[in-house]
User: Fold this.
Amino acid sequence: MSNGPVLDVDHVSVAFAGREVLDDVSFQVQASEFTGLIGSNGVGKTTLLRSVLGLQRIDRGEIRVNGAPLSRHARVLGYVPQKVSLDPDVPVRARDFVALGLDAHRFGFSRRTKDERQLVEQMLMDVDAERFADTRVGSLSGGEQQRILIAHALISQPSLLLLDEPLANLDPKSVEEVVSLLHRVAKDHGVAVLLSAHEMNSLLPVMDRIVYLTNGRAASGTTDEVVRSDVLSTLYGHHVDVLKLHGRVFVVAQPSESDVEIPEHSTLTIE
Ligand SMILES: Nc1ncnc2c1ncn2[C@@H]1O[C@H](COP(=O)(O)OP(=O)(O)O)[C@@H](O)[C@H]1O
Ligand SMILES: [Mg+2]
Assistant:
């Protein structure tokens, strides 16, 4: 593996019907780094992740994974999509669902080898899912399902794990558990984690890097470098304030502006 970035998004633009959703977006992600892709609904987070996966055609720019263009490297990517509905009636146990992650890159069905079975058990342990390994995936809670989806994506040992809003719809305790699990995945396994979210506060304790997306453009760096009034005002194209209260960060603009980001569950009132 090269010593360069695991992911290099290099001047990427994507337009839908002539409207640029991503406009000259550039950032890099390094091994072992936890990166938050942060932006309100509709700013292009899913479009960007799908572009990295090669599922979305890009109009300009280049995306390199471990130094090479995408197509030949699907194997090094793990992906947890935004909306996964696991039907309670599907008779697939959590353990089997994790094992299915081994099959993404091979054709047909084959019996598990002993090594593969051991790998599945190790994965279940890594995501702290042994307790519900024999439960049907559709019967699990949101947080338990996320852990199984993460194990499913990680079992092929990708160098880059992409997760699209995995924290949406989770209760605060599950959010904390999934965030700390992903932090461990980055630090202990050297995986580069790129996670999209419309709310950054739950990620502040673990985020090495933030990619803040708005108006099709991105600012990236550490949170201290990016989540500042001057940087975000330039990105938004109008003045925004960054308020830090009790270890939480709020990005606020004048109430008349259309893209004010008012965090969920916030007790802050903006007059
Ligand atoms: N396949 C598509 N065709 C046309 N417009 C699309 C398509 N995919 C996404 N969009 C539009 O691009 C914008 C960004 O969408 P998306 O990437 O899903 O944002 P996010 O994930 O940040 O909520 C939205 O306005 C959405 O309607
Ligand atoms: Mg999305």
Notes: The pocket of magnesium ion (ligand 2) is lined by residues 45-46, 82, 164-165 (CB under 6 Å). Confidence is low (pLDDT under 50) at residues 264-271. The first strand starts at residue 7 and ends at 16. Residues 238-271 form one domain.
